[in-house]
Design goal:
The chain is α/β, with parallel strands linked by helices. Helices cover about 50% and strands about 15% of the residues. It starts with a strand and ends in a 6-residue tail after the last helix.
């Protein structure tokens, strides 16, 4: 069984990450039940500790859709496409050509994928498997944003992770946008339309 979750659908900048964890036995599921938890309920240190527990003990995968891709197809489709690519890769990597043998559970209630699956509302809180996937997605996206912060410190990505904090929005007005910003998201979209910043 595969658990999938995403991180970064709402920010004004940065990619959306998708994390996945594969369990192949009851013993693995039992072990995961002690580790997997909704990433949002964890402190950064707790999340980091569990992240390394997961990657040491389980088959795990991640992928992301860039800000450019998000602007081209919209955030929902970019997330869904990334999920589909990730599941296809898991099947290929595990030499499993029988799609019916792979069942996926996804956090949410709206995604549609061409494999056997079930969407679970608040799945990251209910399922330790989805919770583990949420930790993979959140930890790796935060790492990406930290690296971005080192290049563009004035946007404060290390702290806001690309979300529209007051400081982030003020500095978008002051410095304009970079390629990591999502031009189809407000207030950036409005700023461009009003001529406050350039696309």
């Amino acid at each position: 069984m595969i658990g999938i979750d995403e991180s970064g659908r709402g920010p004004l900048a940065g990619p959306v990450f998708v994390g996945a964890v594969l369990v192949e036995s009851e013993s693995e599921m039992l072990l995961l039940s002690k580790i997997g938890k909704d990433s949002k309920s964890l402190t950064p240190k707790e999340r980091e500790k569990r992240y390394f527990q997961i990657i040491r003990n389980f088959k795990h995968f991640s992928n992301y859709a860039s800000s450019k891709n998000i602007d081209e197809v919209n955030i929902f489709k970019a997330t869904e496409n990334t999920m589909i690519k990730l599941i296809s890769r898991i099947i290929f990597d595990n030499n499993n050509n029988d799609n019916d043998e792979v069942f996926t559970i996804i956090d949410g209630n709206y995604f549609k994928i061409p494999y056997p699956y079930k969407c679970i509302v608040k799945g990251d809180q209910i399922s330790s498997l989805i919770g583990a996937a949420s930790i993979i997605a959140k930890y790796e996206r935060d790492l990406y944003m930290q690296k971005l912060h080192e290049i563009y410190p004035y946007y404060d990505f290390a702290n806001n992770k690309g979300y529209p904090t007051k400081k982030h929005v003020e500095n978008i007005k002051r410095y304009g946008i970079i390629k990591e910003h999502r031009v189809t998201f407000d207030p950036i979209k409005t700023f461009i339309r009003q001529g406050i910043i350039k696309d």
